[in-house]
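pasting for the record
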Amino acid sequence: MAKLPVKYYVVDAFTGSAFKGNPAAVCLLEEERDEKWLQAVAAEFNIPETCYLIRLSGSDSLDSSNPRFRLRWFTPVAEVKICGHATLATAHTLFTSSLLNCDVIEFVTKSGTLTARKVADIQTIDGSNIQNHESQESFLIELDFPTIPMIDFNSAEFSPISKALNGVSMIDIKRTATEDDLIVILSSGETVVELQPQFDLISKCPGRGIIISGLAPLDSGFDYYYRFFCPKLRINEDPVTGSAHCALAPYWSKKLGKCDLVAYQASPRSGVLNIHLDEQNQRVLMRGKSVTIMEGSLLV
């Protein structure tokens, strides 16, 4: 029996402009597909993430009044446990299509149930808040993600990391407890921007990838800068990494003494995230926009 065509969208996430932010391919499945096919399609798109969602119904959704979808994320070479920008892209696709008429979506994932909420785009002009009604896409999406604990890193392994980061001065190194990424704190946001990484050496370092971060300049309007390098997953530099804040938000919240933060990813495509740390429930709320740039069908 021939497989049904699979509708897909390519969405730039964490940006309000096309060809900025982080691209993700969102594939809407009517039926389950085997993992070899899922990975092959992700390799064909060859962008940071390709994700697949399938609607849950019946007994799968009895415990929630919100629409629920199973969601999985794949890089060109492997499946990952959590991804912020592709979840934002998926929610944007659902909110801007005729598939749903709601303001809250739940995604069942390998990292538990993640929620996406449609919220008003409030802009401030001369101290007054106004709501942006320019288009149907002039809204923000708020993602509700779990915090990710950081653990101490073995100081004996600092040397290869320093070399991979061109000998930059490192204030601290931690390791995330789930995805096994390294968190490297640098002396300043300017250092984060200027760093020229050695991707061949990063691929030989411990862990999956390296997140670098530093305090933003005082006049920048941001709290911290960051970048993410992950050549092991065929992503030399991820343009905008939402899941990084599951670890970075608790770190910077403690350092800066506040729970509302604005982060800037200093990649060539760049991206901005508005973040709230819910300390009591250990959740990270991330807000951002997305732009759909392409749609089509997979025929095989």
